[in-house]
Specification:
heterotrimer, A mainly alpha, B mainly alpha, C alpha+beta, B: mainly alpha, MetI-like fold, two-stranded antiparallel ribbon, C: alpha+beta, 11-stranded mixed β-sheet, 30% helix, globular
Chain lengths: 299, 321, 526
């Protein structure tokens, strides 16, 4: 029995060496991001007196201005960045796929309206939206959380970043999905299902969605790096994760001031920069591999 | 053709919706344009300031005034339309830079940002297309590996790291280029690279992707079988199809170049309008934010339209309905 | 454009050049080069010296000043400057429709306060009148020893009446712009530069050496540093544009100069919220802040920790000891450690007395500060992190950090929507009241919710006292009440500024407490 297109795609992926190596590396990073802050003898949040010490035996990545161990902080930050990237991408995935599927499937007037809305949001500079979101709603949500679940207050900013970043990246996903659904809608097997009396929801979930999955996964692996980079931009503006917690973005934004001709505490920029760069590289390699694997043209 | 005319017609209401959205969004955020570390001398002064810029009026009234549709009694006691407003092309005074109109600031900064954007666009193309082409043709070789890696690396480094590194190496240590400001051609080199490298990487990858696809197609096999020289095959047959994804990316790319210039303009102290986009949101300069959103919306929508047009003209298979 | 003689990196982009309406220090520098008042700032002392007025007489009771204008006082477009112009200018500044933020300085002038708060609308009631074209008389509410310094403030500058009447709020866009100061405006390009050139009609034009001066703007300290190091900029005059992470290295260079100025970094407690309404809690928290660690490890500009809100040397006033004074005056490491240990012990005792022994039961609260961004320094964040660690370690109380962006910070502070918030104050003139007045019950700059009738009474009494020693005693009593007993605020350190220029190339810049460095005094050494 021949394998389904999806199964064939996975087999192709496994043969792609760089993609598999990247997947392995990413798995390693994820594990490290979870484990290192737990088992490290140093605390990512608390300082010591060893301010600005270069990498050495006690501190593998050196220390920062408060004497905090940079190695622990980098991996704690990686944990946050990956979370922000993953959840943000998931948010953009859910909104984008639903939006695109409905628009593509229903078609005509509703499709036109929905895509016009996408056009409008596309032309609105996201930074305005993000700033307003963070400044306005954060205060409200914190008050509400303070009454309901005070333990979650520090998470509020992170929550907003997830939602906000996801909310500004779903547009391309929606467009892609809609395009794909439009093409699939007139395929014989869909028409056959419809003539057999299958309900719309059933068609959407059983027939259309599996065929959209491939392209969605590809875009997902490209959205995650984009979100992580956008988060680092927000950190540069001072709108990112709140101290004393850190993300790779905030560490990088802090370290950016080390690129000067007077005194370079190189480890403060090189260490987070390298980890971020390698993680993003791996994500991109994996995305490439997935795209090659799921490419319907090589089917 | 009808499709494009329809889209052009849609442009105006679309822009109006965007601008209205921005108008209300930015006023929702806490804090106002005149909040400062030092409070004004008295509540009376604070009130006078708000009155001067009509911030004491209801949001609806301010919106009408912004559009140019507000009627009121003037100092002479007569009922007349309040001066200014979007309908007569008046974007108002900046609330932060109170001696300049929004139009003044845009007029000063837009040419600079556009120049920088176009230069960076050219740089991205000049960097990306050759690399993409080369790595696709030399697929699997060391050259491909190095080229592809280079293209990937530049899209994984944030611009606020890349910019200072370029300044440090080429500006301060080697001294080849000035480290900031704008005016002389040499001053444009580093900012152009800092802004364009990221997009150059994207273009390189798109180009490589496109070339690889194109080289595997039937069309190319036929051309080769007919005995055409390899170079001719590559340039005349493979390249035009391969460059289509790059062209369709140009629209969003130019848009991103224009909106994403904040970091580069900030680091190189370039008098463009990119910095105003972010700073006016942060300083609650309502009029500036709305004016800039209007500008960007028009630019982006027109750009997208032009790109779709180019794409439609170049690729006969694409049909818009 | 050809390069100017002198290029100054002035700070953030200026918002306006109108001397009556401006609020930023960067705006003040450029406007101060273009417009002058009765007095101007002495580059060495930062105090008021004769400007457009060549001399003045003070009445015996200290309330009446008679200013004599120079005969050659004129605008750059040729019109002579007369006493009526000053009268008109000052009335314009207090006119509510001008909406001048700093019109509070006119409170010292008779009739000024009523006009500014709106209880009077008769502009002619302001205590200034022209006796003849070259002489004017100013009547004050109380004898004010620093009134001459106040006259150098931008809001007291003389503006061209006919231009303002013709163009209203946008009069500074007139071309040519009539200027009363050492320079006249050549070009004003937003986010690019402001170019000025020597005003040939200025009364002291002979001593102004630079012919053309450019003011550049930047938000990013690293950019500012790069521009300075490559010689694009001659003087980096804005303190906030020095990359603070490099302080300790920059200080060692001969072209970086530090100076103390009238500014204090402090924290505010919101006394309307529990548990900060309890003075013991505030005192306990104040005592565990290791101020030396902050200035040695974070700010690193050689600032001095302080327990009082008023910096030393403010008009010859020495601030009284506040809470935790022992730590601030300790000179060597051993003394500091001992003082800190004593303070911590006291703090623990106070907290227990307040009902939270070892921090048990103390609610979690937030510390708010504005997050630096866009390449700006993150000093507030770093200080916050340290404070958080100290509170946890010594008192066992949990403080959450809440960075917000600038406008949100201001808005929340004004609304008393915070628990503890970071703050600072820079003095406008060399007298302690520039700091102490902030904490009057009705002052808009108070923003702590703290009201104390005795404090207000002491300050009011001091305002009416002309005998210097008695006045100082009253002010010290007020400050003791504020900084030692009640402590609604936690002073941390007094500011030290840093600016850069090559002393072999540029001269005429002197450190002074008011942080006034008029461009007219600068010159290039050839």
């Amino acid at each position: 029995m021949t394998a389904s297109p999806n199964q064939r795609a996975w087999m192709r992926l496994r043969k792609n060496r760089p993609a598999m190596a990247s997947a392995f590396f990413l798995a390693l990073i994820v594990v490290a991001a979870w484990v290192v802050p737990l088992i490290s003898p140093h605390d990512a949040l608390h300082g010591s007196d060893a301010q600005f010490s270069p990498p050495g035996g006690q501190h593998w990545f050196g220390t920062d201005v408060h004497g905090r161990d940079l190695f622990t902080r980098v991996f704690a930050g990686t944990r946050v960045s990956l979370l922000v990237g993953a959840v943000g991408a998931a948010v953009s995935l859910v909104i984008g796929v639903c939006w695109g599927m409905v628009a593509g499937y229903v078609g005509r007037r509703l499709d036109g309206l929905m895509m016009r809305i996408v056009d409008v949001l596309y032309a609105l500079p996201s930074i305005v939206f993000v700033i307003v979101l963070i400044t306005t709603l954060e205060g409200l949500v914190k008050r509400w959380l303070g009454a309901v679940a005070p333990g979650f207050i520090p998470m509020a900013r992170m929550l907003f970043l997830f939602v906000g970043l996801g909310a500004v990246s779903w547009l391309t996903m929606a467009r892609i999905v809609r395009g794909q659904v439009l093409a699939l809608r007139s395929r014989p097997f869909v028409l056959a299902s419809q003539s057999l009396g299958a309900g719309h929801l059933r068609i959407l979930f059983r027939h259309i969605l599996p065929n959209v999955v491939g392209i969605v996964i590809v875009y997902l692996t490209l959205t995650v790096p984009a979100i992580i980079l956008y988060e680092s931009f927000l950190s540069y503006l001072g709108l990112g994760i709140q101290p004393p917690a850190a993300s790779l973005g905030t560490l990088l934004a802090e370290g950016a001031s080390q690129i000067n001709p007077i005194r370079v505490l190189w480890w403060l920029i090189a260490c987070p920069g390298l980890v971020l760069g390698l993680t993003l590289l791996a994500l991109n390699f994996l995305g490439d591999g997935l795209r090659d694997a799921f490419d319907p043209r090589t089917d | 053709m009808r499709y494009f005319l329809r889209r052009l017609a849609f442009l105006v209401p679309l822009v109006w919706v965007i601008v209205t959205l921005a108008f209300f969004l930015v006023r929702v955020a806490p804090g106002g344009p005149f909040d400062r570390e030092r409070k004004p001398a008295s509540p009376a002064v604070e009130r006078a300031l708000a009155e001067k810029y009509h911030l004491d009026e209801s949001l609806g009234s301010q919106y009408l005034r912004f559009l140019g549709l507000k009627w009121e009694t003037g100092s002479d006691g007569r009922w007349h339309r309040a001066p200014g407003g979007l309908l007569v092309g008046d974007l108002g005074l900046s609330l932060k830079y109170r001696n300049h109109t929004v139009a003044d600031i845009i007029r000063q900064g837009l040419p600079v940002s556009l120049t920088l954007g176009i230069l960076a666009f050219g740089f991205a193309m000049g960097f990306g297309i050759p690399i993409g082409f080369y790595t696709a043709v030399q697929r699997g070789s060391w050259g491909d590996w190095i080229g592809s890696l280079l293209a990937l690396v530049v899209i994984c480094v944030p611009s606020f790291v890349l910019g200072p590194v370029l300044i440090l190496v080429f500006g301060l240590q080697l001294g080849w280029f000035p480290v900031g400001l704008w005016g002389a051609p040499l001053q444009a080199v580093l900012p152009m690279a800092a802004l364009g490298l990221f997009f150059g990487g994207r273009v390189a990858r798109l180009m490589r992707e496109g070339m690889t696809q194109s080289l595997q197609s039937e069309y190319i096999r036929t051309a080769r079988a007919k005995g055409a020289s390899e170079l001719r095959v590559l340039l005349r047959h493979a390249f035009p199809t391969a460059v289509m994804p790059v062209i369709s990316y140009s629209g969003p790319m130019l848009a991103d170049l224009l909106t994403g210039s904040f970091v580069v303009e900030n680091i190189f102290q370039i008098p463009g309008i990119g910095v105003f986009m972010v700073n006016s949101s942060l300083s609650r300069d309502y009029t500036m934010v709305v004016g800039l959103v209007l500008l960007y919306a028009i630019l982006l929508l027109v750009l997208n339209l032009l790109v779709d047009l180019a794409y439609g003209l170049l690729d006969p298979r694409v049909r818009y309905e | 454009m050809p390069r100017a003689d002198l290029v100054v990196l002035n700070g953030p982009e200026i918002e306006t050049l109108d001397p009556h309406v401006l609020t930023g220090q960067a705006d003040g520098r450029v406007s101060g080069a273009l417009f002058e008042g009765l007095t101007r700032f002495d580059p060495v002392s930062g105090r008021g010296i004769p400007g457009l007025a060549e001399r003045w007489d003070v009445s015996p009771d200290g309330r009446r000043y008679t200013f004599h204008l120079r005969t050659n006082a004129a605008f750059s477009t040729g019109e002579p400057i007369r006493a009526e112009d000053f009268v008109w200018s000052w009335r314009h500044a207090v006119d509510p429709s001008t909406a001048a933020d700093y019109s509070g300085f006119f409170f010292y002038v008779k009739g000024g306060k009523e006009l500014v708060i709106g209880t009077s609308t008769n502009l002619a009631s302001l205590g200034i009148r022209a006796l003849d074209p070259l002489t004017m008389e100013v009547e004050l509410v109380n004898p004010t020893s620093f009134f001459v310094d106040l006259c150098a403030m931008r809001i007291m500058a003389v503006v061209p009446r006919w231009t303002v009447e013709r163009l209203g709020d946008q009069w500074v866009r007139a071309e040519p712009l009539p200027c009363s100061g050492a320079f006249e405006l050549v070009a004003w390009l937003p986010n690019n530069r402001v170019r000025v050139r020597k005003n040939p009609r200025y009364w002291d034009a002979a001593s102004v050496r630079p012919r053309v001066v450019d003011f550049l703007s930047s938000d990013s300290p690293s950019t500012a540093l790069n521009l300075y190091l490559t010689g694009e900029v001659d003087v980096l005059i804005e303190k906030n544009l020095i990359p603070l992470e490099l302080n300790d290295v920059l200080l060692k260079r001969p072209d970086f100069h530090t100076f103390s100025y009238l500014g204090t970094y402090f924290m505010r407690f919101n006394v309307t919220r529990k548990p900060f309404d309890n003075v013991r809690v505030r005192r306990a928290m104040s005592l565990v802040l290791d101020k030396w660690r902050i200035v040695d490890r974070i700010t690193k500009l050689g600032e001095r920790p302080t327990s009082a809100i008023t910096p030393p040397g403010t008009g010859g006033y020495s601030p009284p000891p506040g809470l935790g004074q022992n730590l601030c005056v300790a000179t060597n490491a051993a003394d500091r450690a001992a003082a800190f240990a004593a303070n911590v012990a006291e703090a623990k005792r106070l907290l227990a007395e307040a009902g939270y022994p070892e921090g048990r039961g103390f609610p979690t609260f937030t510390y708010m500060f504005n997050a630096g961004g866009g390449g700006g320094s993150r000093t507030h964040e770093k200080i916050a992190v340290e404070f958080q660690a100290m509170l946890q370690e010594h008192l066992g109380i949990q403080m959450e950090l809440r960075p917000v962006e600038w406008k949100t910070y201001l808005s929340e502070m004004s609304r008393l929507n915070y628990d503890v918030i970071r703050g600072s104050w820079v003095g406008d003139y060399q007298d302690p009241t520039t700091f102490l007045d902030c904490f009057l019950a009705d002052s808009g700059n108070n923003r702590t919710g703290w009201k104390n009738a005795r404090y207000d009474a002491l300050l009011e009494q001091a305002a009416g006292t002309s005998e210097p020693a008695a006045r100082v005693a009253l002010l010290q009593e007020a400050e003791t009440l504020l900084c030692r007993d009640e402590v609604p605020i936690l002073p941390v350190f007094t500011y030290t500024g840093l600016y850069s220029y090559d002393p072999n190339r540029v001269g005429g810049i002197h450190p002074n407490l008011t942080d006034e460095h008029p461009v007219s005094a600068m010159f290039l050494k050839r």
